[in-house]
Amino acid sequence: MEILGSFAPDPAGLGPGQTPADEAGDRPVHDPWTDAALVAAMVAVDPAGLGGVMLKALPGPARDAWLEMLRALLPAEAPLRRVPLHVTDERLLGGLDLAATLHAGRPVAEKGLLVEADGGVIVLAMAERLTQAFAAKLGMAVDHGAVRVERDGIAALTPTRFGVVALDESVGPDEGPPDALMDRLAFHMELEGLRQRDIGEALHEADEIRAARELLASVTIEDKALEALCGAALSMGVASLRAPLFALRVARAAAALDRRTAVEQDDLTLAARLVLAPRATRIPEMPPPPPPEEDEQDEEEPPPPPDEGEEERQDEDDKPLEDQIVDAAQAAIPANLLARLMAAADRKRRQGILGRSGEQRKALTRGRPIGSRRGDPRAGARLALIDTLRSAAPWQPLRRAEMAQWADPDRPLPRVLVRKDDFRITRFKKRSQAVIIFAVDASGSSAIARLGEAKGAIELLLADCYARRDQVALIAFRGKGAETLLPPTRSLARAKKRLAGFPGGGGTPLAAGIEAAHIMAEVARTRGETPSVVILTDGRANVTLEGIGGRAKAEEDAKAAAEGMRAIGVSVLLVDTSLRPAPKAEALAHTMGATYMPLPRADARALSVAARSAAQTADS
Amino acid sequence: MAMAFPFSAIVGQDEMKLALLIAAVDQGVGGVMVFGDRGTGKSTAVRALAALLPPMSVVKGCRFNGDPKRHQDSCATTCDIQGKIADGAPMETEDAAVPVVDLPLGATEDRVVGALDLERALTQGEKAFEPGLLARAHRGFLYIDEVNLLEDHLVDLLLDVAASGENVVEREGLSVRHPAKFVLVGSGNPEEGELRPQLLDRFGLAVEVTTPKELETRVSVVRRRDAFERDPAGFLATWQQAEAGEAQRIREARDRVQDVEVPDDVLNTVAKLCMTLGTDGLRGELTVIRAARALAALEGDVEVDEGHVRKVASMALRHRLRRDPLDESGSTVRVERAVVEVLGEVA
């Protein structure tokens, strides 16, 4: 292991001589259930302060047992509310209670789930499918300790403090809960692979939790412990400032559980292990048992306040504290970090198998209710009948009284007086939204410069799609299969990151590329979006759908894929990237009913214009 | 509900704090958009600003924060007070806190623009206008956290009102118009979605915040945050004096800002800067000058100099650059380059 002098950033976090095998040797083994039980106890002690838990586990006995344990540990009066994935804003945040309003003859506000959960815990099912908008609303309530409602004539600010248990059922590294939610939860815990026999008992009794809750406010922590936690977080590459704050609170909760009013070193190491280690993005560069003269120099990753700061702290206890915290956490890192790094590599491989990633993506957003808004149903929009009646209902007495003044008394009034302002139309969030899917031939036969041009076009498109809120996606095919470089996105920041530095070369799995675009287009359509596809290729396939070389079968597959594409009736633009217009590409375009565009010198701007016109054809 | 964290206790993030202070000194500078990482105190800073704003004078009883100096043209068709004053009743004024109004995600249109008062309709059978968030924010600040996640139809509404300074409501036979001039303050994480260019354009200043990377700063952030959460009242007491100082600085700068001179050579420099960057229109130029003037007022200077321009150039211009996706360098870097080109290196 490198000890001295090297501050070279090591993206994988693994020092040269540092292999998993080295680490495994003397790493203290923590029984996963014990940790899980400890986490449950701490959440029960301070649900709101700790934010909560991201619990990565498929439904099963382990998860059920853990939730049951948490329920048992929480005070009996503390609410535990399950929040379904497709919860409406009304139910989540609160709004007008229509039935009560009509009954009482005055506006009655309805409490949302977040307010009902005050003092307790909410459980989010399928957290990996939550939208960023949901995470943002939840985050605001968590950050302010209150829910602000400005809905349907109700304006209210209601205090509420709760913890969150986010059940993450993602199967691949492709999915995961929104980062904004993850950042606000102290614990990121995995219960995967736990079997029936691993499931044990709770470590604490409900009355111990109660005692700890009472003690919590008086638990003190020394300033140097706080510094040590911050330092440990930094050296593990944990950027968020919420993490050290959570670690601090976990240390307090741990002390309180142990019936102490002072945080001790064990509490700190525990906090680092449970809060910081799962967030680590690198393994801290630290000598395991540091030779005394050397450790000064080998301290922090970022060099800034190097020696002076260190030397001021003459206190002998000081140095070992941070070291030991990091040591403890470090022991928990490798398995996690390595697994994560490997999973990320795995994701690339697996995305090549298209059906799978397409299915997952489909499952991500299908069937999300988008709600309604005020609007005119005549303008081609769909009337949202229930919402229209809802919005008309409170005004009935007023309107009846009005009508009674001038209406013909012999003719009965209509049962419901609906007016123009009541009309609500269903919102299709992405109905008018175009998704332009680029499938780019990045094989050796298509010059690598083509990939550069396609990247340029996509960036240009992104830049002028903001106004229309269109999305752009990018699929590249080369070697054995196709890969989603960029799922549909509007974010220039993300797009740029993904686009930068995708390599070219290898065979031409044209069929896989077409099929990938096909699936993505279908998924986009089930989300109510209007997909259009732009394929950039020279039409010369030489890798089959199965990823095997062979020109004849490859071209047959490509033709079949092209027919499949035609069948879904999406507008397609085929840009022929060969140096001279190629009959094969034109024939392929014909097969899939695509607009054919020979573009021997495709430059980014021309491509963007062509893609836009294809998208507009799709709109009309 | 939690008390607001004091503005002066926010560690670092100088550009964000400066932009907010400038908007507090000269509301005419336009709104402030804060882009940045999670957990960098974006919303904390905006909320904290509310406590520093000197009170404003309003027409007593006016539901639209009517300005006594301009009550004739300002108040809405349904303002009861307006009618009384027109009938010769003396206009009373009172001091009110400058509103800093939250527009939460999930808000519905009726609450944003205002609608029929449901309570009065149900209990008294009357039609009355219930002002919405836009009315409440008049002469103050309208804050939208995660503004890039705001629903499109609300964004459209905002664009319209922010441009015209007036909110027009036509529903249920009510026809109401009232002034709605506010400083739009938004915050968001660009990784979670882009902001529409039309909306971005409504912000006078744009700042970027990042998570601090120095251990010392990070320790201070965590220490103060923890201290605040453990004992909010005690923490506020500790910072009371600093807060009072900051509030006074704003008050004095407000009184002074209109008298700050902008010499011709500074005007020329700013014009050259904007030309170098190729920003569209005059908005950029005007914003740089207004912001520099507010900064000079904050710093107690009677005249704007190049140092002020240097400090505000990035926040006033970075979001006005034409997008050039093929230029890898960020807009901040481009502005800084232009500043060096026009003004030279910092001496």
Automatic annotation (TrEMBL), chain A:
It is an enzyme of class 6 (ligase). Pathway: Porphyrin-containing compound metabolism; bacteriochlorophyll biosynthesis. The keyword Ribonucleoprotein does not apply. Residues 1-30, 279-319, 351-377 are annotated as: Disordered. Keywords: ATP-binding, Bacteriochlorophyll biosynthesis, Chlorophyll biosynthesis, Ligase, Nucleotide-binding, Photosynthesis. It comes from the Bacteria. GO terms for molecular function: ATP binding; magnesium chelatase activity. Involved in bacteriochlorophyll biosynthesis; introduces a magnesium ion into protoporphyrin IX to yield Mg-protoporphyrin IX. PANTHER family: MAGNESIUM-CHELATASE SUBUNIT CHLD, CHLOROPLASTIC. This is Mg-protoporphyrin IX chelatase.
Automatic annotation (TrEMBL), chain B:
Residues 28-213 form the AAA+ ATPase domain. The keyword Nucleotide-binding applies. GO terms for biological process: bacteriochlorophyll biosynthetic process; photosynthesis. The keyword DNA damage does not apply. InterPro entries: AAA+_ATPase, CHLI-like, ChlI/MoxR_AAA_lid, Mg_chelatase_ATPase-isu, Mg_chelatse_chII-like_cat_dom, P-loop_NTPase. Its EC number is 6.6.1.1. Involved in bacteriochlorophyll biosynthesis; introduces a magnesium ion into protoporphyrin IX to yield Mg-protoporphyrin IX. Belongs to the Mg-chelatase subunits D/I family. This is Mg-protoporphyrin IX chelatase. It comes from Roseospira navarrensis. The gene is bchI.
